[in-house]
Amino acid sequence: MKYLSHTLILPAILSVLSAYGSTGTDGKNRYVKHLVFPEGATIEQKVEMAAHLVPEQRQLEWQKRELTAFLHFGINTFTDREWGDGTEDPTLFNPEQLDAGQWVRTLKECGFEMVILTAKHHDGFCLWPTATTKHSVASSPWRDGKGDVVAELSRACAEQGMKFGVYLSPWDRNAECYGDSPRYNDFFVAQLTELLTNYGPVAEVWFDGACGEGPNGRRQEYDWSRYMQTIRTLQPDAVSAVMGEDVRWVGNEGGVGRETEWSATVLIPEVFAEASQSNEANGVYPMAKDLGSREKIASAREMFWYPSEVDVSIRPGWFWHARQSAEVKSVEKLADIYFTSVGRNSVLLLNIPPDSRGLIDDADVNRLYKFAEWRNATFEDNRVRCGKRLHKLDEGRSVVYKFKKPSVVDVIMLREKTECGQRVESFTVEAKTAEGWHEVARGTTVGHKRLLRIEPVEATALRVTIDGCRAKALLCGAGAYLSAPTAPEVSVESLKLLPREGRTLLEGDALTLDLGSEQTIKGFVYTPANGVYTPATAVRYRFSTSLDGNVWESAAEGEFGNIANNPVAQVVELDAVRKARYVRLEGTALDGSETLIPADDTELIGE
Ligand code: FUL
Asked: How far apart, in whole angstroms, are the C-alpha atoms of residue 346 and residue 250?
């Protein structure tokens, strides 16, 4: 198939330049971000063009980051609500221990590449001392009214090499001018300008589409084109998301991308004039199942590179609520979400809401580290040899990826070179076992990354066949992994702790306890004093038991993984229960010296 000539395409493109800003080919027969089909183009011509629709650089960079943290924080954190109504008293805002360094450190350690802060949610309360309204941190007791959450977070990001983004709710239930369209648009652009001018580089601007005003509410005509222009002028490298032109809302808040997730879509971002009518005419909307099939392309007039972002909260709500701390999503659930977001050609935007102290809650911190450990353990060993080699494949052709050695695998990964477009429509994966080749998975789109879970299989190679594609498929990555188990969650509250009464602390160089009588012991819990790490905190341990206080047996030995960054309760369960009257816990500090573990920091787990 030959490419359509520029002479045919360019006039059509130029006719929409004014409506959509940058569009056109990049000199390599590629259409950057947007294309318009010429009148009378056949479906073959249209599909060929669709295959050459490519992302803008900023979209490409954004997709490579894969994991972004969402920080819902604001007046709702103090009122225990999900949506404030704008009448909240700013003096309620007082996160006395706020430490943006802790947010960024935790998220960075756990593999996040960017954070997005709700600088203003629907209630209109601003987390920076804006000149546009008094309804902000400047009217709160926090840091004597001189604080600026946006500044503290952007600084922590700059210091720790984390990208920074802002969420600014267009819907504002506090602003008196909301509903007076020109006035509010000025007000909103002034807020946006402050955020995009005073806080260094901003990598993503997130405009929520929510507006719950109802039929009698104030109606605001948003000037999206002016908002987009403001972003392009002040932060040209920032992607604009949801009510934006670069990043698409996946269509749900449950963490689930589509099995068939096209970044090359026929959906026109709603911030463009006439988008709603065109989308409606083509039967597409953000929640629609099909945004990019040949059938949709056949009836479309234009296409956008408009990749999916999956926003979901680690808790039931978007804001922190004390009562939800026991409902933080399990590692198993987070792993599922990882497969249905990053594994389905989307960026995962995981919400971790700071609490009313201004810190990320221990329960969430703990889960994030466990989630990161699971990802690292699962994806650290790619069994495929030469998985990064580029393969150009016509429809019906296959590529074989040999394993480094025979291995049991249950996860398959594929990638497309999206710099050149998204092309794979369907594929089959076979594994080479002792009995020969047999099919283990089938899929549709690939895009930036596709992960497939399969039944565990012992194999020596994979064969990937492109069953359907547009132009040539460009596979640039393949992997085969064995997923790490997602350890069952243990909360200290759920453990049966042995009573402390009847115990005697014996003299010695280590914590040695006489329990008074023989007990059955399943393990122990060590919580560094007040949850704070000091040079005396134990980072390694040896736990021994004895029936008579003379003959000792080692029962467990190991390290308190990540205790320096995350000094929360460390639960150690023994491989097998032990009967003992005496127990001993020896600790080693980070500098290698022995450290005495205080009895008060230790609990024993019974049966
Ligand atoms: C929704 C909002 O209404 C929620 O409060 C939250 O901010 C979520 C990310 O988007 O539309």
From this structure: 8
